[in-house]
Write a structure and sequence with these properties.
Number of strands of chain B: 19
Structural class of chain A: mainly alpha
Shape of chain A: globular
Radius of gyration of chain A: 19 Å
Order of helices and strands of chain A: HHHHHHH
Order of helices and strands of chain B: HHHHHHHEEEEEEEEEEEEEEEHEHEHEE
Largest sheet of chain B: 7 strands, mixed
Strand order of the largest sheet of chain B: 1-4-5-7-8-11-12
Strand content of chain B: 25-35%
Shape of chain B: globular
Oligomer: heterodimer
Helix content of chain B: 25-40%
Protein backbone atom coordinates (compact mmCIF):
# COMPACT_ATOMS: atom_id res chain seq x y z
CA UNK A 1 0.00 0.00 0.00
CA UNK A 2 1.51 3.38 -0.95
CA UNK A 3 1.89 5.92 1.87
CA UNK A 4 -0.81 8.38 0.67
CA UNK A 5 -3.46 5.71 0.47
CA UNK A 6 -2.41 4.39 3.84
CA UNK A 7 -2.68 7.78 5.53
CA UNK A 8 -6.15 8.18 4.14
CA UNK A 9 -7.12 4.80 5.50
CA UNK A 10 -5.76 5.61 8.94
CA UNK A 11 -7.68 8.90 8.89
CA UNK A 12 -10.88 6.96 8.19
CA UNK A 13 -10.13 4.54 11.00
CA UNK A 14 -9.42 7.41 13.37
CA UNK A 15 -12.71 9.10 12.43
CA UNK A 16 -14.68 5.89 13.05
CA UNK A 17 -12.84 5.25 16.31
CA UNK A 18 -13.50 8.81 17.46
CA UNK A 19 -17.18 8.40 16.75
CA UNK A 20 -17.17 5.19 18.77
CA UNK A 21 -15.33 6.85 21.66
CA UNK A 22 -17.60 9.90 21.61
CA UNK A 23 -20.66 7.65 21.74
CA UNK A 24 -19.21 5.88 24.74
CA UNK A 25 -17.80 8.81 26.70
CA UNK A 26 -19.85 11.81 25.47
CA UNK A 27 -16.71 13.92 25.93
CA UNK A 28 -15.33 15.33 22.67
CA UNK A 29 -11.83 16.05 23.97
CA UNK A 30 -11.51 12.63 25.53
CA UNK A 31 -12.84 11.00 22.33
CA UNK A 32 -10.14 12.86 20.34
CA UNK A 33 -7.42 11.59 22.65
CA UNK A 34 -8.69 8.04 22.66
CA UNK A 35 -9.06 7.87 18.86
CA UNK A 36 -5.58 9.28 18.37
CA UNK A 37 -4.02 6.93 20.89
CA UNK A 38 -5.90 3.93 19.48
CA UNK A 39 -4.59 4.64 15.98
CA UNK A 40 -1.03 5.15 17.24
CA UNK A 41 -1.20 1.88 19.18
CA UNK A 42 -2.72 0.07 16.19
CA UNK A 43 0.03 1.38 13.86
CA UNK A 44 2.64 0.18 16.30
CA UNK A 45 0.96 -3.17 16.80
CA UNK A 46 0.61 -4.00 13.11
CA UNK A 47 4.32 -3.46 12.56
CA UNK A 48 5.03 -6.60 14.54
CA UNK A 49 1.78 -8.57 14.11
CA UNK A 50 -0.34 -9.71 11.21
CA UNK A 51 -3.57 -7.75 11.37
CA UNK A 52 -6.48 -8.56 9.11
CA UNK A 53 -8.93 -5.89 10.18
CA UNK A 54 -7.31 -2.62 11.24
CA UNK A 55 -10.75 -1.25 12.07
CA UNK A 56 -11.50 -4.10 14.45
CA UNK A 57 -8.08 -3.67 16.08
CA UNK A 58 -8.54 0.10 16.56
CA UNK A 59 -12.01 -0.40 18.09
CA UNK A 60 -10.67 -3.03 20.47
CA UNK A 61 -7.84 -0.76 21.60
CA UNK A 62 -10.26 2.16 22.01
CA UNK A 63 -12.54 -0.01 24.15
CA UNK A 64 -9.60 -0.90 26.42
CA UNK A 65 -8.51 2.73 26.62
CA UNK A 66 -12.02 3.80 27.62
CA UNK A 67 -12.23 1.11 30.29
CA UNK A 68 -8.78 2.09 31.53
CA UNK A 69 -9.78 5.72 31.66
CA UNK A 70 -12.88 5.17 33.77
CA UNK A 71 -11.07 2.71 36.00
CA UNK A 72 -8.43 5.34 36.79
CA UNK A 73 -11.12 7.81 37.79
CA UNK A 74 -12.56 5.40 40.28
CA UNK A 75 -11.55 5.37 43.95
CA UNK A 76 -10.11 1.88 43.74
CA UNK A 77 -10.38 1.02 47.42
CA UNK A 78 -14.13 0.80 47.10
CA UNK A 79 -13.94 -1.82 44.40
CA UNK A 80 -15.50 -4.62 46.45
CA UNK A 81 -18.41 -2.43 47.42
CA UNK A 82 -19.38 -1.72 43.85
CA UNK A 83 -18.28 -4.73 41.82
CA UNK A 84 -20.83 -4.01 39.12
CA UNK A 85 -19.02 -0.78 38.35
CA UNK A 86 -15.61 -2.39 38.19
CA UNK A 87 -15.30 -1.67 34.49
CA UNK A 88 -16.44 1.91 34.32
CA UNK A 89 -17.10 4.55 36.85
CA UNK A 90 -19.07 7.20 34.99
CA UNK A 91 -18.14 10.84 35.23
CA UNK A 92 -20.68 12.93 37.16
CA UNK A 93 -21.93 14.73 34.06
CA UNK A 94 -22.46 11.43 32.30
CA UNK A 95 -24.56 9.91 35.01
CA UNK A 96 -27.87 11.60 34.28
CA UNK A 97 -27.62 10.96 30.56
CA UNK A 98 -26.57 7.38 31.16
CA UNK A 99 -29.57 6.80 33.40
CA UNK A 100 -31.96 8.11 30.77
CA UNK A 101 -30.29 5.96 28.16
CA UNK A 102 -30.37 2.95 30.48
CA UNK A 103 -34.11 3.43 30.90
CA UNK A 104 -34.56 3.59 27.12
CA UNK A 105 -32.48 0.40 26.71
CA UNK A 106 -34.39 -1.36 29.48
CA UNK A 107 -37.69 -0.49 27.85
CA UNK A 108 -36.51 -1.85 24.50
CA UNK A 109 -35.24 -5.03 26.17
CA UNK A 110 -38.52 -5.59 28.00
CA UNK A 111 -40.50 -5.19 24.77
CA UNK A 112 -38.50 -7.79 22.84
CA UNK A 113 -39.88 -11.24 22.10
CA UNK A 114 -38.71 -13.46 25.01
CA UNK A 115 -36.43 -15.69 22.94
CA UNK A 116 -34.66 -12.75 21.33
CA UNK A 117 -34.14 -11.19 24.76
CA UNK A 118 -32.95 -14.44 26.30
CA UNK A 119 -30.39 -14.97 23.53
CA UNK A 120 -29.20 -11.40 23.77
CA UNK A 121 -28.81 -11.41 27.57
CA UNK A 122 -26.91 -14.68 27.45
CA UNK A 123 -24.48 -13.16 24.97
CA UNK A 124 -24.08 -9.66 26.38
CA UNK A 125 -24.53 -10.27 30.09
CA UNK A 126 -23.31 -13.84 30.61
CA UNK A 127 -20.69 -13.73 27.88
CA UNK A 128 -21.82 -17.04 26.41
CA UNK A 129 -20.62 -17.65 22.86
CA UNK A 130 -23.14 -18.06 20.05
CA UNK A 131 -22.20 -21.76 19.95
CA UNK A 132 -22.87 -22.15 23.68
CA UNK A 133 -26.22 -20.38 23.40
CA UNK A 134 -27.15 -22.55 20.42
CA UNK A 135 -26.43 -25.70 22.44
CA UNK A 136 -28.40 -24.47 25.44
CA UNK A 137 -31.46 -23.38 23.45
CA UNK A 138 -31.29 -25.95 20.64
CA UNK A 139 -30.72 -23.35 17.93
CA UNK A 140 -28.08 -23.29 15.23
CA UNK A 141 -25.36 -20.68 15.48
CA UNK A 142 -26.65 -18.66 12.54
CA UNK A 143 -30.07 -18.41 14.18
CA UNK A 144 -28.43 -17.21 17.40
CA UNK A 145 -26.53 -14.53 15.47
CA UNK A 146 -29.79 -13.52 13.82
CA UNK A 147 -31.50 -13.06 17.21
CA UNK A 148 -28.60 -10.93 18.44
CA UNK A 149 -28.71 -8.87 15.23
CA UNK A 150 -32.45 -8.24 15.63
CA UNK A 151 -32.01 -7.33 19.28
CA UNK A 152 -29.28 -4.85 18.38
CA UNK A 153 -31.45 -3.31 15.65
CA UNK A 154 -34.25 -2.88 18.22
CA UNK A 155 -31.90 -1.31 20.75
CA UNK A 156 -30.33 0.90 18.11
CA UNK A 157 -33.75 2.19 17.06
CA UNK A 158 -34.65 2.84 20.71
CA UNK A 159 -31.39 4.72 21.22
CA UNK A 160 -31.97 6.88 18.14
CA UNK A 161 -35.44 7.72 19.37
CA UNK A 162 -34.06 8.60 22.79
CA UNK A 163 -31.31 10.72 21.21
CA UNK A 164 -33.86 12.62 19.11
CA UNK A 165 -35.98 13.52 22.11
CA UNK A 166 -32.81 14.20 24.06
CA UNK A 167 -31.69 16.84 21.53
CA UNK A 168 -34.75 18.92 22.41
CA UNK A 169 -33.33 19.55 25.84
CA UNK A 170 -31.12 22.60 26.47
CA UNK A 171 -27.70 21.87 25.06
CA UNK A 172 -24.84 21.57 27.50
CA UNK A 173 -21.91 23.86 26.79
CA UNK A 174 -18.97 21.94 25.42
CA UNK A 175 -15.51 23.17 24.59
CA UNK A 176 -16.33 22.57 20.96
CA UNK A 177 -19.58 24.21 19.86
CA UNK A 178 -20.73 21.75 17.19
CA UNK A 179 -20.73 18.13 18.11
CA UNK A 180 -22.43 15.50 16.09
CA UNK A 181 -23.93 12.77 18.23
CA UNK A 182 -26.02 10.32 16.38
CA UNK A 183 -26.45 6.85 17.65
CA UNK B 1 -22.97 -13.24 6.47
CA UNK B 2 -25.16 -15.39 4.36
CA UNK B 3 -27.65 -12.76 3.18
CA UNK B 4 -27.08 -10.56 0.17
CA UNK B 5 -25.62 -7.37 1.67
CA UNK B 6 -27.17 -5.07 -0.95
CA UNK B 7 -30.67 -6.06 0.08
CA UNK B 8 -30.34 -5.53 3.83
CA UNK B 9 -30.35 -2.04 5.30
CA UNK B 10 -26.98 -0.93 6.64
CA UNK B 11 -28.08 -0.75 10.26
CA UNK B 12 -28.93 -4.40 10.15
CA UNK B 13 -25.62 -5.20 8.47
CA UNK B 14 -23.77 -3.26 11.13
CA UNK B 15 -25.69 -5.11 13.86
CA UNK B 16 -24.93 -8.42 12.20
CA UNK B 17 -21.23 -7.57 12.06
CA UNK B 18 -21.23 -6.67 15.75
CA UNK B 19 -22.81 -10.05 16.51
CA UNK B 20 -20.12 -11.78 14.45
CA UNK B 21 -17.05 -9.73 15.37
CA UNK B 22 -17.69 -9.88 19.11
CA UNK B 23 -17.29 -13.68 19.13
CA UNK B 24 -14.34 -14.99 21.14
CA UNK B 25 -12.67 -16.07 17.91
CA UNK B 26 -13.28 -14.82 14.39
CA UNK B 27 -12.03 -16.79 11.42
CA UNK B 28 -9.58 -14.89 9.19
CA UNK B 29 -11.76 -15.03 6.09
CA UNK B 30 -14.71 -13.61 8.04
CA UNK B 31 -12.55 -10.83 9.48
CA UNK B 32 -11.26 -10.04 5.99
CA UNK B 33 -14.84 -9.73 4.75
CA UNK B 34 -15.62 -7.43 7.68
CA UNK B 35 -12.67 -5.17 6.83
CA UNK B 36 -13.85 -4.97 3.20
CA UNK B 37 -17.36 -4.07 4.28
CA UNK B 38 -16.39 -1.44 6.81
CA UNK B 39 -13.81 0.15 4.49
CA UNK B 40 -16.22 0.24 1.58
CA UNK B 41 -18.34 3.14 2.75
CA UNK B 42 -17.91 5.81 5.47
CA UNK B 43 -21.56 5.20 6.40
CA UNK B 44 -20.72 1.59 7.19
CA UNK B 45 -17.91 2.67 9.50
CA UNK B 46 -20.12 5.27 11.21
CA UNK B 47 -22.99 2.81 11.74
CA UNK B 48 -20.65 0.14 13.01
CA UNK B 49 -19.11 2.66 15.42
CA UNK B 50 -22.58 3.56 16.76
CA UNK B 51 -23.67 -0.06 17.00
CA UNK B 52 -20.47 -1.11 18.73
CA UNK B 53 -20.66 1.77 21.20
CA UNK B 54 -24.23 0.77 21.95
CA UNK B 55 -23.19 -2.84 22.49
CA UNK B 56 -20.10 -2.09 24.60
CA UNK B 57 -21.57 0.84 26.50
CA UNK B 58 -22.38 0.92 30.19
CA UNK B 59 -26.05 2.01 29.72
CA UNK B 60 -26.88 -1.22 27.89
CA UNK B 61 -24.88 -3.33 30.35
CA UNK B 62 -26.79 -1.73 33.21
CA UNK B 63 -30.14 -2.19 31.46
CA UNK B 64 -29.29 -5.85 30.82
CA UNK B 65 -28.48 -6.37 34.51
CA UNK B 66 -31.71 -4.66 35.57
CA UNK B 67 -33.70 -6.71 33.10
CA UNK B 68 -32.16 -9.92 34.42
CA UNK B 69 -32.83 -8.88 38.00
CA UNK B 70 -36.47 -8.15 37.28
CA UNK B 71 -36.82 -11.53 35.56
CA UNK B 72 -35.26 -13.28 38.53
CA UNK B 73 -37.41 -11.34 40.97
CA UNK B 74 -40.40 -12.83 39.29
CA UNK B 75 -38.98 -16.33 39.50
CA UNK B 76 -37.37 -16.23 42.94
CA UNK B 77 -36.38 -13.37 45.09
CA UNK B 78 -33.44 -14.80 46.99
CA UNK B 79 -31.07 -15.50 44.15
CA UNK B 80 -30.35 -11.87 43.30
CA UNK B 81 -27.87 -11.79 46.14
CA UNK B 82 -25.54 -13.93 44.07
CA UNK B 83 -24.98 -11.15 41.60
CA UNK B 84 -24.15 -8.52 44.16
CA UNK B 85 -20.85 -9.91 45.29
CA UNK B 86 -18.56 -10.65 48.17
CA UNK B 87 -19.92 -8.34 50.82
CA UNK B 88 -23.34 -9.87 50.74
CA UNK B 89 -22.26 -13.41 49.99
CA UNK B 90 -21.49 -14.22 53.61
CA UNK B 91 -25.06 -13.65 54.71
CA UNK B 92 -26.24 -15.36 51.61
CA UNK B 93 -24.24 -18.47 52.45
CA UNK B 94 -25.82 -18.39 55.88
CA UNK B 95 -29.24 -18.35 54.25
CA UNK B 96 -28.20 -21.44 52.38
CA UNK B 97 -27.39 -23.47 55.42
CA UNK B 98 -30.58 -22.38 57.18
CA UNK B 99 -32.89 -23.16 54.33
CA UNK B 100 -34.42 -26.29 55.77
CA UNK B 101 -37.94 -27.47 55.04
CA UNK B 102 -39.38 -24.61 57.08
CA UNK B 103 -37.86 -21.79 55.08
CA UNK B 104 -39.80 -22.48 51.96
CA UNK B 105 -39.69 -19.07 50.31
CA UNK B 106 -35.95 -18.98 50.80
CA UNK B 107 -35.22 -22.43 49.46
CA UNK B 108 -33.48 -22.70 46.12
CA UNK B 109 -35.79 -22.99 43.18
CA UNK B 110 -35.61 -26.16 41.21
CA UNK B 111 -33.60 -25.85 38.03
CA UNK B 112 -35.42 -25.35 34.80
CA UNK B 113 -34.29 -27.72 32.04
CA UNK B 114 -32.19 -24.95 30.45
CA UNK B 115 -30.28 -24.42 33.65
CA UNK B 116 -29.41 -28.06 34.24
CA UNK B 117 -27.38 -27.98 31.07
CA UNK B 118 -25.36 -24.83 30.81
CA UNK B 119 -22.08 -24.10 29.12
CA UNK B 120 -20.04 -20.99 28.51
CA UNK B 121 -16.48 -20.04 27.61
CA UNK B 122 -15.26 -16.73 28.98
CA UNK B 123 -12.07 -14.75 28.98
CA UNK B 124 -10.91 -11.34 30.11
CA UNK B 125 -8.34 -8.90 28.76
CA UNK B 126 -5.65 -7.15 30.76
CA UNK B 127 -7.12 -5.02 33.54
CA UNK B 128 -10.64 -6.29 32.98
CA UNK B 129 -12.68 -8.14 35.57
CA UNK B 130 -15.79 -10.09 34.75
CA UNK B 131 -18.54 -11.06 37.14
CA UNK B 132 -20.34 -14.22 36.11
CA UNK B 133 -23.58 -15.14 37.90
CA UNK B 134 -24.25 -18.81 37.18
CA UNK B 135 -27.67 -20.41 36.75
CA UNK B 136 -27.45 -22.34 40.04
CA UNK B 137 -26.85 -19.17 42.03
CA UNK B 138 -23.08 -19.59 42.17
CA UNK B 139 -20.87 -16.68 41.29
CA UNK B 140 -17.48 -16.43 39.63
CA UNK B 141 -15.40 -13.29 39.26
CA UNK B 142 -12.57 -13.42 36.76
CA UNK B 143 -9.46 -11.31 37.20
CA UNK B 144 -7.63 -9.84 34.19
CA UNK B 145 -6.11 -12.12 31.50
CA UNK B 146 -8.10 -15.09 32.74
CA UNK B 147 -9.93 -17.78 30.81
CA UNK B 148 -12.45 -20.39 31.94
CA UNK B 149 -14.96 -22.72 30.43
CA UNK B 150 -18.04 -23.82 32.33
CA UNK B 151 -20.11 -26.97 31.77
CA UNK B 152 -23.11 -27.82 33.92
CA UNK B 153 -24.66 -31.29 33.78
CA UNK B 154 -27.42 -32.78 35.98
CA UNK B 155 -24.96 -34.62 38.23
CA UNK B 156 -21.95 -32.28 38.28
CA UNK B 157 -20.74 -28.77 37.66
CA UNK B 158 -17.37 -28.34 35.93
CA UNK B 159 -15.15 -25.35 35.46
CA UNK B 160 -11.85 -25.55 33.63
CA UNK B 161 -9.48 -22.73 34.52
CA UNK B 162 -7.08 -22.33 31.62
CA UNK B 163 -5.41 -19.10 32.63
CA UNK B 164 -5.45 -16.46 35.33
CA UNK B 165 -7.21 -16.10 38.64
CA UNK B 166 -10.83 -16.55 39.68
CA UNK B 167 -12.93 -15.97 42.79
CA UNK B 168 -15.62 -18.60 43.35
CA UNK B 169 -18.76 -18.54 45.48
CA UNK B 170 -20.32 -21.92 45.02
CA UNK B 171 -23.94 -22.64 45.84
CA UNK B 172 -24.16 -25.81 47.89
CA UNK B 173 -25.61 -28.83 46.09
CA UNK B 174 -24.37 -32.08 47.66
CA UNK B 175 -25.74 -34.22 44.85
CA UNK B 176 -24.11 -32.03 42.23
CA UNK B 177 -20.46 -31.46 43.14
CA UNK B 178 -18.56 -28.53 41.75
CA UNK B 179 -15.15 -29.28 40.22
CA UNK B 180 -12.44 -26.92 39.10
CA UNK B 181 -9.90 -28.52 36.82
CA UNK B 182 -6.43 -27.02 36.43
CA UNK B 183 -3.47 -28.27 34.42
CA UNK B 184 -2.04 -30.47 37.22
CA UNK B 185 -4.67 -30.20 39.89
CA UNK B 186 -8.36 -30.75 40.53
CA UNK B 187 -10.37 -28.93 43.17
CA UNK B 188 -13.62 -30.43 44.43
CA UNK B 189 -16.16 -28.29 46.22
CA UNK B 190 -19.38 -28.81 48.05
CA UNK B 191 -20.36 -25.23 48.84
CA UNK B 192 -17.91 -22.53 49.65
CA UNK B 193 -16.03 -19.43 48.61
CA UNK B 194 -12.46 -19.70 47.46
CA UNK B 195 -9.89 -18.17 45.18
CA UNK B 196 -7.69 -19.93 42.64
CA UNK B 197 -4.61 -18.32 41.19
CA UNK B 198 -2.99 -20.18 38.32
CA UNK B 199 0.75 -19.52 38.62
CA UNK B 200 3.37 -19.67 35.88
CA UNK B 201 4.58 -23.23 35.08
CA UNK B 202 1.23 -24.84 35.92
CA UNK B 203 1.52 -24.09 39.63
CA UNK B 204 -1.68 -23.33 41.50
CA UNK B 205 -2.61 -21.43 44.61
CA UNK B 206 -5.96 -22.29 46.18
CA UNK B 207 -7.24 -20.19 49.10
CA UNK B 208 -10.39 -21.08 51.02
CA UNK B 209 -12.54 -18.26 52.43
CA UNK B 210 -15.57 -20.30 53.50
CA UNK B 211 -16.44 -23.99 53.70
CA UNK B 212 -14.09 -26.73 52.56
CA UNK B 213 -12.51 -27.82 49.33
CA UNK B 214 -10.57 -30.89 48.34
CA UNK B 215 -7.45 -30.43 46.24
CA UNK B 216 -6.10 -33.38 44.26
CA UNK B 217 -2.67 -32.85 42.81
CA UNK B 218 0.16 -35.18 41.87
CA UNK B 219 -1.76 -38.22 43.07
CA UNK B 220 -2.29 -36.76 46.56
CA UNK B 221 -5.42 -35.40 48.12
CA UNK B 222 -5.79 -32.57 50.62
CA UNK B 223 -8.76 -31.15 52.40
CA UNK B 224 -8.53 -27.40 52.93
CA UNK B 225 -10.58 -25.46 55.48
CA UNK B 226 -11.20 -21.78 56.01
CA UNK B 227 -8.00 -19.74 56.14
CA UNK B 228 -5.90 -22.48 54.57
CA UNK B 229 -4.02 -22.01 51.38
CA UNK B 230 -2.19 -24.56 49.29
CA UNK B 231 0.40 -23.83 46.67
CA UNK B 232 1.24 -26.58 44.23
CA UNK B 233 4.40 -26.29 42.16
CA UNK B 234 6.63 -28.73 40.32
CA UNK B 235 8.54 -29.05 43.60
CA UNK B 236 5.52 -30.26 45.57
CA UNK B 237 2.82 -28.91 47.85
CA UNK B 238 3.05 -26.15 50.38
CA UNK B 239 0.31 -25.61 52.95
CA UNK B 240 0.07 -22.18 54.61
CA UNK B 241 -2.45 -20.10 56.49
CA UNK B 242 -3.75 -16.71 55.46
CA UNK B 243 -6.28 -14.14 56.65
CA UNK B 244 -9.61 -15.26 55.23
CA UNK B 245 -11.55 -12.36 56.69
CA UNK B 246 -10.55 -10.00 53.89
CA UNK B 247 -11.08 -10.57 50.19
CA UNK B 248 -8.25 -11.72 47.93
CA UNK B 249 -5.92 -8.89 47.03
CA UNK B 250 -6.72 -8.77 43.34
CA UNK B 251 -10.36 -8.00 44.05
CA UNK B 252 -9.15 -4.59 45.23
CA UNK B 253 -6.32 -4.23 42.73
CA UNK B 254 -3.64 -4.78 45.39
CA UNK B 255 -1.18 -7.60 45.85
CA UNK B 256 0.34 -8.38 49.21
CA UNK B 257 3.77 -9.92 48.70
CA UNK B 258 5.68 -11.57 51.50
CA UNK B 259 9.02 -12.86 50.27
CA UNK B 260 7.61 -13.97 46.95
CA UNK B 261 9.75 -14.30 43.81
CA UNK B 262 9.68 -11.21 41.62
CA UNK B 263 8.35 -13.47 38.88
CA UNK B 264 5.18 -13.98 40.88
CA UNK B 265 4.64 -10.26 41.43
CA UNK B 266 5.15 -9.59 37.72
CA UNK B 267 2.61 -12.31 36.86
CA UNK B 268 0.08 -10.39 38.98
CA UNK B 269 1.05 -7.10 37.30
CA UNK B 270 0.56 -8.67 33.89
CA UNK B 271 -3.07 -9.35 34.68
CA UNK B 272 -3.49 -5.58 34.50
CA UNK B 273 -0.73 -4.29 32.22
CA UNK B 274 -1.65 -3.49 28.65
CA UNK B 275 1.97 -3.95 27.60
CA UNK B 276 3.28 -7.24 29.03
CA UNK B 277 6.15 -7.03 31.48
CA UNK B 278 8.93 -9.55 31.03
CA UNK B 279 11.91 -10.41 33.25
CA UNK B 280 15.01 -10.88 31.12
CA UNK B 281 17.19 -12.35 33.83
CA UNK B 282 16.70 -15.65 35.65
CA UNK B 283 18.40 -14.58 38.87
CA UNK B 284 16.29 -11.44 38.93
CA UNK B 285 13.11 -13.50 38.41
CA UNK B 286 13.95 -15.57 41.49
CA UNK B 287 14.79 -12.57 43.68
CA UNK B 288 12.21 -12.23 46.43
CA UNK B 289 10.20 -9.10 47.08
CA UNK B 290 7.93 -7.98 49.90
CA UNK B 291 5.38 -5.24 50.22
CA UNK B 292 1.90 -4.18 49.28
CA UNK B 293 1.72 -3.41 45.57
CA UNK B 294 -1.03 -1.71 43.62
CA UNK B 295 -0.84 -4.18 40.73
CA UNK B 296 -3.82 -2.59 39.01
CA UNK B 297 -1.46 0.34 38.39
CA UNK B 298 1.50 -1.44 36.75
CA UNK B 299 3.49 1.76 36.33
CA UNK B 300 3.49 2.50 40.05
CA UNK B 301 4.64 -1.05 40.84
CA UNK B 302 7.52 -0.84 38.36
CA UNK B 303 8.55 2.58 39.63
CA UNK B 304 8.44 1.24 43.16
CA UNK B 305 10.59 -1.82 42.59
CA UNK B 306 13.00 -0.03 40.26
CA UNK B 307 14.73 1.85 43.07
CA UNK B 308 14.14 -0.67 45.85
CA UNK B 309 15.51 -3.76 44.17
CA UNK B 310 18.01 -2.33 41.69
CA UNK B 311 16.04 -3.18 38.60
CA UNK B 312 16.43 -1.53 35.23
CA UNK B 313 13.22 -1.01 33.26
CA UNK B 314 13.38 -0.95 29.49
CA UNK B 315 10.03 0.13 28.03
CA UNK B 316 9.70 -1.37 24.56
CA UNK B 317 7.05 -1.46 21.87
CA UNK B 318 5.74 -4.92 22.55
CA UNK B 319 7.08 -5.67 26.03
CA UNK B 320 8.49 -3.87 29.03
CA UNK B 321 11.76 -5.66 29.85
CA UNK B 322 13.25 -5.86 33.35
CA UNK B 323 16.95 -6.47 33.86
CA UNK B 324 19.37 -6.36 36.76
CA UNK B 325 20.95 -2.93 37.04
CA UNK B 326 23.97 -4.18 39.00
Amino acid sequence: MEPGRQNEQWADIQAATRRYALNRTRQPDLADDIAQQAVLDAIEYQQTHIVISLHALAFRIADNLIKGHFRRLKPSDNIELIPELACSQPLPDRVTEDRAETRAMLKALSQMPPLRRDVFLRRRLDGQSCEDIGRALKLNTKAVEKHITRALVDLHAARRLWRTSDSLRPIRTEKKPVEEMTG
Amino acid sequence: MTGKPALTPSAEQAAEWVAIMRAPTVEPHIERRFEMWIGADPDHAALYADMCALYDGEPLAEAARLQRISERKLANSWRIAAGIGGAIAASWMAVWSLSGPGADQRSPVRNTPQEIYYSASLDTGAGETLEVPLPDGSLMILSGRSAVSITYAPDRRDVVLARGEVWFEVASAPDRPFYVTLPETEVRVLGTAFNIDLLPDHGTEVSVYRGQVQVDSGGRSHRLSVGEQITTTAGGLNLTRFDATSLPDWRSGWYEAEDVPLERLIAEVNRFSRVPVQIDDATLAAKTVSGRFKVSDPESVLNGIEALYGIRIKPGKAVIALTNSQ
